[in-house]
Amino acid sequence: MVDFGYDISDFFDIQPEYGTLDDFRALIKKAKELDLKIILDFVPNHSSNESEWFKKSVNREKGYEDYYVWHDGKVNATTGEREPPTNWLQYFRGSAWEWNEQRQQYYLHQFAVQQPDLNYRNPLVVAQMKRVLKYWLAEGVSGFRCDALPPLFEVLPDAEGQYPDEVISGATDDAEDRNHLTVKYIENQPETIDMVYQWRTVLDDYQRIFGGDSRVLLIETYAPAWFTMQFYGNRTTNGAHLPFNFNLITVMEQNEFSAKNVQLAIDLWLNNMPAGRTPNWVLGNHDKRRAASRYGQEHIDAMNMLIMVLPGASVTYQGEELGMTDVEISWEDTVDPWACNSNPEIYEQYTRDPARTPFQWTNGSNAGFTDGPTTWLPLASDYDTINVETESQAELSHLKIYEHLGALRKSSQTLKYGSTKYQTLLENSFVVERILANEPTIVFAANFGNTVAYLNLLEFDKNLPESLKLLIRSVESTKNYNNRYGTTSLRLEPGEALVMSTEN
């Protein structure tokens, strides 16, 4: 629990804070009764330094000698002191190498010191991690979300066993920050793509033998499009069903939030995705500030609508369906190792705690998250109104809108199978149209600007009728459900978003 579960000591058991294997089996059983599917987080890049594998590797026990990435390091010609083999930096600040006194070698850790990197150039490690996948498939999971794929492999050492240094990137003067150097040699190696293909084979083989639905493979990768798209597979080999699409996060990080940049984010995925694959859309996750804080609370309904109306899979990080926002976390309350490895002056640049605060179930004690005396991170100040209980009872709320969107996706053949057209209109409005023969057309329209917009949707699609029926509206919209609104001069208030249909 150094990195809240991402430092795994036993890949075949459940962390005691969360229960037992019997509890997990009960969860799987109940989920099947409810027609829900459980997907596990698979953390392949590293283990905990408390893992038996690591302890055996430290002792150079047979079969475990090269389970991790070990290196003698280099001797400084000037000082005569031993030092790390390269200048590589970890994600959580500082050197990616740690000296182990017992083994008398450095080990690589691209994350915390307590998270040594597994050596995927060792066939025994590859086979072991496939056993992990098969073990949990046999326990009834429906697939895996694979964490932190970019650093799975690092470049091969040269003939003398030496690795190359990364060069200074120019992105920051902070020499402890990973961004201070390039990551050419420690991320996005071609072998990583092949490993994902091998994992997909494990999942497909399991389905072929035991039947049932496809076991899904989702991949977390913040990588350029040319690399990310390879995870899908090629003409002869299947890869991940869904390499996570973070464009709606990353494009907005690099640019302002606007309709033009929403279109850019969508273009970057749909224009690069291999034919016959499934797109996906992500607004946030446990590593990024909450969507409602990044896009603005007035746009959370619009963004939830957007990812539900676009083709493919939509991914929700808990709290987005409620409109939860970041919580300001003091240095004293900070628990994220990335932030804790910095200092009180700069920790807010690194902390992920603001998006990891307790999920808000009720307006009661501790937001219904725990019956203990305190929560592990402070609660948002607005939890008395932004919570499941309150929003479920409201006539209209972010949660109600989210539920309506989910119901529409299940019932609408157009959203399942229709073609897609989208465009920025005027300066800062955005429209998506889903079309399927002999089915109602679905139209999403949103105003991401600060002023009232009057949209002529016939300029977008001249085949649209004179009016559209309102199916879903954002919280602040004053329009009425099931009323019809004209397509030639559709008035949208700032932040207003609508889902409409050509149905009668």
Detailed description of the structure:
There is one protein chain. 25% of the residues lie in helices and 15% in strands. The chain has helices at residues 21-33, 52-58, 123-138, 190-210, 225-228, 247-254, 259-270, 291-295, 300-309, 337-340, 388-393, 398-411, 413-417; strands spanning 40-42, 70-71, 74-75, 82-83, 97-100, 105-108, 143-146, 216-219, 242-243, 280-282, 313-315, 419-425, 429-435, 442-447, 453-455, 467-473, 484-486, 490-492, 497-501. It has a six-stranded antiparallel sheet with strand order 12-13-14-19-16-17. Helix 3 runs parallel beside helix 4 and helix 6 packs across helix 7. The longest helix is centred in the middle third of the chain and has 21 residues, at 190-210. The chain is globular, with a radius of gyration of 25 Å. The protein starts with 20 loop residues before the first helix and ends with a strand.
- Please mark out the parts with pLDDT under 50 across 5 or more consecutive residues, or reply none: none
Overall pLDDT level = 96
Q: What is the makeup of the main sheet? A: 6 strands, antiparallel
Measured as a percent range, the helix fraction is 10-25%
Class of secondary structure makeup: alpha+beta
Q: How would you write the strand order of the largest sheet? A: 12-13-14-19-16-17
Total DSSP helices = 13
Report the C-alpha radius of gyration, rounded.
25 Å
Assembly state (oligomeric): single chain
Q: Terminal Cα separation, in Å?
A: 55 Å
**Share of β-strand residues:** 5-15%
Features:
single chain, 504 residues, alpha+beta, six-stranded antiparallel β-sheet, 13 helices
